[in-house]
Amino acid sequence: FPDHFFEHWNGYNVMPPLHDPVPVGALCPQFYGYYTPDDPTDGTNHPNYLSPILLLECCGEEINPDELCMDDKQECASLLFRFHHAGWLHESFAARNILWQQGKPTEWPIQRAFSTKSFRLIDFGRSRKMDSSLTRASEEDTALRLLHLLHHAD
């Protein structure tokens, strides 16, 4: 993914099709590294079963769309729209793939108690480069429905 997916930003942006400004933070968890053991054996031909380790930022827990305020719902939707704007499809967009925590990951614990929530998009196992605006529109419709952001004409 591009570096800007992991960067912490300050400020707000309007991410179409949304019309309201939303905070712009990192889109996905910070990636700290992938480590493998130097020697997975103990000198014999029998492996010690040391697994590789993928180190990622801990981003909290799964959202519950029904418990989010409108601003938080729009911020969650903006994660997917930013992902699309960069040319990617998630292909597994669901509440379980948006995590939240109180405060920003870079804040000291005492500051987190007084901060707003931060959100991250996760689970990119099915993600792929975008090849069609139809698949983008379908995924965006799913996001708007999940987060109850569709405006119905009465």
Automatic annotation (TrEMBL):
<protein>
    <recommendedName>
        <fullName>Protein kinase domain-containing protein</fullName>
    </recommendedName>
</protein>
<dbReference type="InterPro" id="IPR011009">
    <property type="entry name" value="Kinase-like_dom_sf"/>
</dbReference>
<dbReference type="Pfam" id="PF06293">
    <property type="entry name" value="Kdo"/>
</dbReference>
